[in-house]
Write a structure and sequence with these properties.
- By secondary structure, this protein is α+β, with helices and mostly antiparallel strands.
- The chain is about 30% helix and about 35% strand.
- It has helices spanning about 25-30, 35-40, 50-60, 115-130, 145-150, 180-185; strands at about 5, 10, 15-20, 65, 70-75, 85-95, 100-105, 135-140, 155-165, 170-180.
- The strands form two sheets. An eight-stranded mixed β-sheet has the order 2-3-5-6-7-8-10-9, with helices on both faces. It has a two-stranded antiparallel sheet with strand order 1-4.
- A hairpin with a 4-residue loop joins strand 6 (about 85-95) and strand 7 (about 100-105).
- Helix 1 (about 25-30) crosses helix 3 (about 50-60).
- It is globular, with a radius of gyration of 16 Å.
C-alpha cells in the first residue's frame, strides 16, 4: 500500500534488488556510457560526473507515495555481489493506482534471464506489496529485447504511438505495454 518505503533488498533465486549506493557509480557508468546501451534510452551516453549526480539523486529516493516518486534499484548477483544492471518503479498516478517499470542491463549479462527474473520480482512488489491496480512499461518499439521482456512478463501491448516523440534528432515511436493486478494474479 502507498505509502511504501523500501527498507530491505528484494531477493530472487539468483539476484538481489537493492537501493543504489555511491559504490555503484563506476558500474553504472560502465554501461550508461555505452552508445549501444543508450540507443533506446531517453539520454545519450553519460560521463562519470553525470552518472555520479544521477546515482546521488537515486540514493535519496526510497519511498513511493506521490506521483513521480520512484525507486531506482541496483540488480546484483547473489553469488558474487556483482551489479549487472538496474530497474526502476515509478508512481505514474496515485489517483489511477498506476506504476511504471523500466530496466537497463549491462550487455555482458544479456541472455541469462536476469532481466526477466528481476522484473518479475519488481512486478511482485508492485502488485503484491504496494498493491497497484495497473503497471505499464513505455519503450521504443524498435527495442526488441525490451518488447520481448514485456511479453515474457505477461504484459500486453496496448498502444503503438507513431512519431509521438522527438528523440535524438528524429521522430520516434513509443510502445506501451501494461498488466492489471487481476491479470498478474491469474498468471
Amino acid at each position: 500500500m502507498i505509502p511504501f518505503e523500501l527498507t530491505e533488498p528484494i531477493e530472487t533465486e539468483r539476484l538481489r534488488l537493492r537501493l543504489m549506493t555511491e559504490a555503484d557509480i563506476d558500474i553504472v557508468h560502465s554501461y550508461q556510457s555505452r552508445e549501444d546501451v543508450c540507443r533506446y534510452l531517453l539520454f545519450d551516453p553519460r560521463d562519470r560526473d553525470t552518472v555520479a549526480a544521477k546515482v546521488a539523486e537515486h540514493i535519496r529516493h526510497t519511498r513511493l507515495e506521490s506521483d513521480g516518486d520512484y525507486l531506482q534499484l541496483a540488480v546484483e548477483r547473489k553469488d558474487d555481489g556483482q551489479m549487472i544492471g538496474d530497474l526502476y518503479i515509478t508512481v505514474k498516478s496515485v489517483e489511477n493506482d498506476t506504476a511504471e517499470l523500466g530496466w537497463t542491463f549491462h550487455p555482458d549479462h544479456h541472455g541469462q534471464g536476469y532481466a526477466t527474473e528481476s522484473a518479475k520480482a519488481l512486478l511482485a512488489l508492485a502488485f503484491d506489496t504496494v498493491e497497484f491496480h495497473r503497471v505499464i512499461a513505455e519503450l521504443d518499439p524498435r527495442n526488441d529485447a525490451s518488447v520481448n521482456l514485456c511479453l515474457r512478463l505477461g504484459m500486453r501491448r496496448e498502444a503503438h504511438f507513431v512519431e509521438d516523440l522527438w528523440f535524438k534528432g528524429e521522430w520516434a515511436d513509443t510502445g506501451s505495454y501494461a498488466m492489471l493486478a487481476r491479470e498478474y494474479r491469474a498468471s
